[in-house]
Specification:
Shape of chain A: globular
CATH class of the largest domain in chain A: Alpha Beta
Helix content of chain A: 25-40%
Number of helices of chain A: 11
Radius of gyration of chain A: 21 Å
Number of strands of chain A: 14
Distance between the termini of chain A: 38 Å
Largest interface: A-B, 67 and 67 residues
Order of helices and strands of chain A: EEHEHEHHEEEHEHEHHHEEEHEEH
Oligomer: homodimer
CATH superfamily of the largest domain in chain A: L-amino peptidase D-ALA esterase/amidase
Mean pLDDT of chain A: 90
CATH topology of the largest domain in chain A: L-amino peptidase D-ALA esterase/amidase
Number of domains of chain A: 2
Structural class of chain A: alpha+beta
Chain lengths: 399, 399
């Protein structure tokens, strides 16, 4: 993906004009890794976000949602190592103070500072460390890379991208590798742009981009207590404002989709214990909703994931997952390919070259294409294989 | 459970009067283990069943459902090693022939013979072996144990129980150890009774028993292409017929619940790679539906299961699972106990003896009790921990 002309090599959230970032190791994580940082825009931003729908919401989610009601933001302070969730009143007090500390540090009104946290649920933020170290965060125009590392939890690599198109730049970074249950392991995604975009329109564009990218890495549309995808537009690139319907809107949506899909695939690829990226394309569905739910049910099936891990062409698990997904289908019309090789036609097995399928399953990227032949809607979902390593990681997380 | 007075020691499906069973190794499974058997009643039975709702249904499920429309059955033929699912027209022809072979063998009309299959999806039944070996199955009044072994796939132990109450006996056996996704790994449950029960009433009683037992081992109410829970009542115990509302109906329902809950727990305990049984009791819910979905979401969460495997009191995962389950709740009212020790009160952590909780998590049975304080409904769900072994088993299943 990054080889395409419009991707900026080593791009990230500080690629667009006027965005600065930085991070520090404040000792919130048990290791001596960066875990506290700030993203800051030199100019006031139009901003929009989508948050988790979990009924148990972390304090920073509640606070940031409130503060985004006016569609404005100037900075974000973020930490890893502690989710500040299930922390009661003190959790909210801490989130407010974190924003204030950041506001003072960067010179933005506290009302325009958003807060994001990720890590263990049910522990309090070590506020003394944050008070001591937040003012030491150095903001630079290249600091996006540092911040991308500071938001990592069990991620093994930072996830960043930037796309240049139509006179503006869209940058982004994300974290989240509890891919099997992104609904429990926080997904954070920060997007920046120097394009001139209205806050209302920004909301719509963000929703569309997230729906076909980050939400297609999800097991069932549910999410953690801390999930958040935020976009900030500071208008530094100038020119006509981008509003719904005009020509540049299309270019902007495309650029944002590109960044979001890239980040979504990176999250899936870096799933906890993952050794392969799985891409499931569901076509011939009666509706987009059907295509989405079937693609996600397949990509999140433990049995499909384990079969891919074992390079085992156990296609019955794919069909069974589609069958239980709720999508409308006729079992006698199913058509299935793995790695471009047809295994099932009209719902029954056909002879295929087993060695070729196994070879494909052994690769870094596994493609599963299921056609329902029930309509013309399609969707793509991403996931990863299920390995013994996943279990090991998640048995040892807090201890 | 089995120590309770009403459980029959070493009881099973042939404990009620007039039921015979037997099994043989027909070479359908790759190992030389029993994989083909018959359950037969000396007297015609009233019968009822609940089947999977998966839109991809195996041939034996389609056939057995048709044949049960009259509420009658005399025998069941069952095999493991091959699910006879996604097998097109030939699959249906094979299922019909299997029933005919069994009908001839036991002397029952083919219309009254049901068929059940479990194993790999998408392969054809080896009919020559079935034709050769089915007539060799010996039926005995103690053959339930053999049949319970013949339906095992990745199960490590057979699952059987029988309860004596009110002048009749209820027996049962089940298989299924793909506990994390019972929706993909076939669950089969066969129940027998010598009580005199009307077929219509039998349907209602079975549904109630399955709802609070086998369906509470499920991840999300979905199921495989082959799931089936069948009850046959041959009336051999005599006496007044049991019908809805009479006093013996209550006794019958209780006995059936007991057998089904016992089998459900055995399935959970024998989950693939499991080292512990997890019992989640959800109380204080606004509705039974809420209690059920929240209990099942918690018990089927990969992160909760992995935490239990690591004896890690990572209670935030329990709360987060409840929060995303869809159940109505107020995050500030949650009350959580693990092994009877309170960890969370009013939605916030309280000090607790970590060693005691870890010790409980290290035991064979882990109890998680979450009170939502949103109403008075309750439900219990069962599951198991998630181990590296689960992944290993499911990466190597067909190969």
């Amino acid at each position: 993906m990054k080889t395409e002309s419009d991707f900026i090599p080593s791009g990230g959230i500080t690629s667009p004009e006027g965005f600065l970032a930085g991070a520090i190791s404040a000792g919130i994580k048990y290791e001596n890794r960066p875990d506290l940082g700030v993203l800051y825009s030199e100019a006031p931003c139009a901003a929009a976000a989508v948050f988790c729908t979990n009924k148990v919401k972390a304090a920073p989610v509640i606070l940031s949602r409130q503060r985004l009601q006016d569609g404005k933001a100037g900075a974000v302070v973020v930490n890893s190592g502690c989710a500040n969730a299930c922390t009661g009143e003190r959790g909210m007090t801490d989130a407010v103070e974190m924003a204030e500390l950041a506001a003072r540090h960067v010179g933005v009104a506290a009302d325009n500072v958003l807060v994001a946290s990720t890590g263990v649920i049910g522990t309090m933020l070590p506020m003394e460390r944050i008070r001591a170290d937040l003012p030491k965060v150095k903001l630079t125009t290249d600091g996006g890379h540092e911040l991308a590392r500071a938001i990592m939890t069990t991620d093994t690599v930072p996830k960043e991208a930037a796309v240049r198109a139509g006179g503006f730049t869209v940058g982004g970074m994300a974290k989240g590798s509890g891919m099997i249950h992104p609904n429990l392991a926080t997904m954070l995604c920060f997007l920046t742009t120097d394009a001139v975009v209205d806050a209302d329109y920004l909301r719509a564009v963000l929703k569309e981009a997230v729906d076909i990218s980050l939400n297609m890495v999800s097991i069932d549309g549910d999410d953690s207590t801390n999930d958040m995808a935020l976009i900030m537009a500071n208008g530094k690139a100038g020119g006509e404002p981008i509003i719904a319907g005009n020509k540049r809107a299309e270019v902007f949506q495309e650029a944002l989709n590109k960044v979001c899909i890239y980040l979504a695939k990176e999250i899936a690829r870096d799933g906890e214990g993952a050794t392969r990226l799985i891409e499931v394309t569901l076509s011939g569905a009666a509706s987009v909703a059907d295509a989405r739910i079937a693609a996600r049910t397949i990509v999140s099936s433990s049995l499909v994931k384990a079969a891919v891990h074992g390079s085992d062409p156990n296609w019955g698990r794919v069909i069974a997952a589609a069958g239980r997904s709720g999508a409308e289908l006729d079992a006698d019309k199913l058509y299935l390919e793995i790695g471009g090789i047809c295994l099932v036609k009209d719902g029954a097995p056909v002879p295929y070259d087993n060695d070729k399928v196994v070879k494909h399953l052994n690769g870094d990227e596994v493609r599963i294409d299921l056609k329902l032949n029930a309509g013309s809607a399609a969707a793509t979902a991403w996931g990863c294989d299920l390995s013994e390593e996943y279990v090991t990681i998640n048995s040892e997380y807090t201890t």
